[in-house]
Design a protein that fits this description.
The complex is a heterodimer of chains A (535) and B (266). Chain A contains 21 helices and nine strands. Chain A is of the alpha/beta class and 535 residues long. Chain A starts with a strand and ends with a helix. The chains are: A alpha/beta (535), B alpha+beta (266).
Chain lengths: 535, 266
């Protein structure tokens, strides 16, 4: 038997940003950047691992908003426009840098990357990257799990059981609708857990979820195996903890790998560096400077002038860091195996968008970690949490402690003076939604009423996204987050009143359905608390 | 020009401009504001020693308070030891004065791993309390691991974590009173016992004035014990426990934070 296992979990999520009412919209670029820098590079790595017959297990959590966006024809079309625009810029850069060979080499690299990305996106997967993930799942290397419907921060939606339950259930249903099978695991948005949540997860058919380390360390019973074995929450739903040591190696801004001086510098981008007349066609509205993705410098370090990025050196460093990561996991497992009555499991969850976007070399690092773990003969192997539960049974029963993986480990990031105003509004809307569902209990709604009620539920869910309070706290694009939550709640209020006043305007309803085109199979009746409690 | 068609009724087609116009009209006319017709008080746990409170009172009630200078709007927050994660025979309570124009407040709590509830109301001239809305019970999490065994449970039932115990262990007996006395002296708190008028089952309360500088007086009751009052021995221990619990809570438990998505951090 292996002495221990390593479970790497990537959580991929972006807020639902789709604006058919505009020709182009800045925040949609979040998705386009992630496709270019994170998801396609990940797919590229998984393909190489498959070609080289590397035996690995990786877990990928795909949030429902991301699933919806990746499969949305409008956004797919807009992505093609985006990547072609980037390709044009790279070609222009090759000409501009002809007297600067080091820069021109990088410009050529970007052109190659964009061409390859376009090929993977458009030709190999017909513009829908979910197909790629589905394939790797079918091969047996990639475990796919999901998350709450709109990434709602469940500890603060807990005022309404229906709100929490629908965030979970609709998330699971969305996943099933796109992948054709139920997820075994569930990523709690922001790892936000509170005791009792496991009941809803169980009802949704979920076997396991993740919490931050202190969620297990401070559980209702002292965890016998620290954070290196799951806890059974008492209803056979298992809670796995994030390993602090391996997390720190990647996340920490001080000791983490991504800050190495050989890696590409995120904050040096030609969108900010070059002459406005030249760069205008590739930035926002032709005059607002944004990241273009073309970056020529490495971190360098200290206050030194930024040096030119050396891709080979950076790749070599990624390999070294992957080896270091594996070595440290081996030492960790050797240490743990002396005290544990079962194989230790090191769970290392990361935001998928760290790999490639913030840390350009992240996908290569991950690929090397998976390769090295396969070659490793000293008792470490990659595994998914589902596999672990199949191999190891009889887990300690205890309830994890309320926790998140955010700053300070609790809910502070999502409720503070920058964003606290949203919660009374969200709770009121949630209660109103429940009332509407109760009103129509046992009553046949007309087709038009049905549409209004379902659209109201969509508006509520979109307002509940954890992204809005998160953005308000970070202080970036606060205006957008405020507008989004205000728009969704206003749309909810409008729809609610049109039911209450029997004043449905189908034209307005149709427009809102186009604007917030999510969860096509939603059923407003599931917001009826009484009905659900009877089931 | 691109036209968006309704999937339910293809007769409805919209240009981008029309979609935008409808969106703006709806937002302008239905922008959210708190419209609860019933008074409410809601608690939300933030971390082991903080919670958020928001409330919604009928306008005539707040106007009534403004008109009467001898009335003060206040939140009365109290622990529910019988349903807390760490069971205890000690009940804590404190009042926070709030202004009538306020509708939310962050509250620093005296102990972790506890259940809390609250009531908002008026403190009248005769110190009686008239409730306007009550809150549901919430639980704040523990901030340290549960001890391996129960030997650390004190007479008052509040558990020391191993870490906490270690921090106090050095010359524990000698320091116990010292720390407690310093606590009272340095913070210029006053130790009092007062006949309680709020709960007949509780005879006397220990009061820590301006607890931790948070602007409220913490009342500590010992209930469900053989003795109706807090014993002389348990007073300093209890004060130390609460102080220690709170100081530990001020330390960050997690240094690693996530980025939570693309482009969301500068």
């Amino acid at each position: 038997m292996k002495k221990g296992f390593l479970s790497i979990v990537l959580h991929a999520h972006l807020p639902f940003v789709r604006h058919p009412e505009y020709d182009s919209f800045f925040e949609e670029i979040w998705l386009f950047e992630a496709i270019t820098e994170c998801y396609v590079p990940l797919i590229r790595s998984l393909e190489r691992l498959h070609q080289d017959r590397v035996n690995y297990r990786l877990t990928l959590s795909l949030s429902p908003p991301l699933i919806l966006m990746l499969s949305d024809p409008l956004l797919q079309t807009r992505y093609l426009k985006y990547i072609n625009n980037r390709l044009e810029l790279a070609e222009k850069e090759i000409i501009r840098t002809r007297s600067m060979p080091e820069y021109q080499k990088l410009a050529r690299l970007y052109r190659r990357l964009y061409l390859d990305t376009l090929d993977i996106f458009a030709n190999q997967y017909d513009c829908n990257l979910l197909t790629a993930f589905k394939n790797f799942n079918a091969i047996g290397n990639l475990e796919l799990i999901t998350c709450a419907a709109t990434h709602g921060f469940l500890p603060l939606l807990n005022r309404s059981e229906a709100a929490v339950r629908n965030q979970i259930d609709i998330g699971v249903k969305t996943f099933i609708a796109h992948f054709g099978f139920p997820p075994a695991g569930f990523w709690l948005p922001e790892c936000g857990y509170y005791p009792g949540l496991e009941k809803h997860l169980k009802n949704a058919g979920i076997n396991y979820f993740f919490v931050d380390s202190h969620g297990i360390e401070n559980a209702s019973e002292p965890p016998r195996n620290s954070v290196y074995a799951p806890l059974n929450c008492g209803n056979d739903v298992m809670a796995f903890a994030r390993d602090p040591e391996s997390s720190r190696q990647v996340w920490s801004s001080h000791e983490g790998y991504p800050g190495d001086y050989d890696y590409r510098e995120y904050y040096s981008d030609i969108g900010f560096d070059l002459d406005m007349n030249y760069i205008a066609p590739y930035i926002l509205d032709g005059y607002i400077r944004i990241n273009t993705g073309i970056k020529y410098h490495r971190v360098t370090g200290g206050d030194l002038p930024k040096e030119v990025y050396q891709p080979r050196q950076a790749l070599y460093k990624a390999q070294l860091h992957a080896q270091d990561f594996i070595n440290k996991r081996q030492l960790q497992i050797n240490r743990l195996s002396t005290d544990m009555d079962r194989p230790a499991l090191i769970v290392s969850p990361y935001d998928a968008e760290l790999f490639g976007h913030w840390w350009f070399e992240g996908p290569q690092w991950l690929e090397w970690v998976l390769r090295l773990a396969d070659k490793n003969t000293n008792g470490i192997k990659t595994i998914s949490c589902s596999d672990y539960l199949k191999q190891v049974s009889a887990h300690q029963i205890a309830t994890p402690s309320a926790s998140t993986w955010g700053d300070q480990g609790y809910s502070n990031f999502w409720i503070n003076e920058t964003n606290d105003w949203i919660y009374p509004l969200l709770h009121t809307a949630g209660a109103d939604m429940e009332k509407l569902a109760i009103t129509f209990q046992g009553v046949k709604a007309s087709p038009l009423q049905e549409r209004v009620l379902n659209q109201a539920a969509r508006s509520l869910l979109l307002a509940q996204a954890s992204d809005w309070p998160f953005i308000m706290q970070t202080g970036t694009t606060v205006e957008y987050a405020t507008k989004r939550i205000t728009d969704h709640l206003a749309r909810f209020n409008y729809l609610r009143d049109s039911i209450r006043n029997n004043s449905i305007n189908e034209r307005y309803l149709s427009a809102l359905e186009i604007l917030d085109d999510v969860f096509p199979d939603i059923d407003f009746r599931n917001f009826n608390v009484a009905k659900q409690n009877l089931e | 020009m691109k036209l968006w068609k309704s999937r339910y009724n293809p007769l409805y087609k919209f240009s981008q401009q029309v979609l935008l116009d409808i969106s703006e009209k709806v937002t302008q006319s239905y922008a959210p504001h708190d419209t609860r017709d019933q008074p409410e008080l809601v608690l939300m746990p933030v971390d082991p020693v903080n919670l958020y409170v928001y409330w919604n009172l009928k306008q005539n009630e707040t106007e009534n308070i403004i008109e009467h200078v001898d009335k003060q709007l206040a939140l009365r927050i109290y622990t529910l030891p019988e349903v807390s994660a760490d069971s205890s025979n000690v009940k804590l309570s404190f009042d926070i004065e709030v202004q009538s124009f306020q509708n939310r407040q962050k509250v620093h709590l005296p102990v972790a791993a506890s259940a809390y509830s609250a009531v908002i109301g008026e403190i009248n001239a005769d110190h009686s309390f008239s409730a306007l809305a009550t809150a549901d019970t919430i639980h704040v999490p523990r901030q340290n691991p549960v001890p391996e065994n129960n030997s650390n449970i004190t007479a008052n039932g509040i558990q020391f974590s191993k870490t906490q115990e270690d921090m106090i262990t050095t010359d524990h007996q000698a320091q116990e009173i010292q720390v407690t006395e310093n606590y009272f002296n340095e913070s210029k708190n006053m130790l009092q016992t007062r006949q309680s008028s709020e709960n007949n089952s509780v005879a006397e309360a220990l009061i820590l004035k301006n607890f931790q500088g948070y602007g409220y007086d913490l009342k500590i009751y010992e209930q469900n014990s053989d003795s109706a009052t807090i014993t002389i021995l348990s007073q300093p221990i209890l004060a130390e426990q609460i102080t220690e619990t709170h100081n530990t809570a001020k330390k960050s438990t997690t240094n690693i934070s996530n980025t939570s998505g693309l482009g969301l951090l500068s």
